[in-house]
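Hi everyone,

Forwarding the result from last night's run.
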Amino acid sequence: MVVLSKLDVTVAYPLLSLGYVITTVIGYYFLNESVNTLKVAGLVFICIGIICVSKSA
């Protein structure tokens, strides 16, 4: 709720998608999960989408 009081919803909501990126990184480094090129490509697309939506707001 603190974030919503400081940022517009159109900027704050796409940042929730960073949870997928953070979860994958934590899983890779701390839980020894495998991360293949398809997963990395998906994470790149998520980051590109976050950037595009944030820039358009």
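The helical segments are 2-6, 9-12, 18-30, 37-56.

Cheers,
N.
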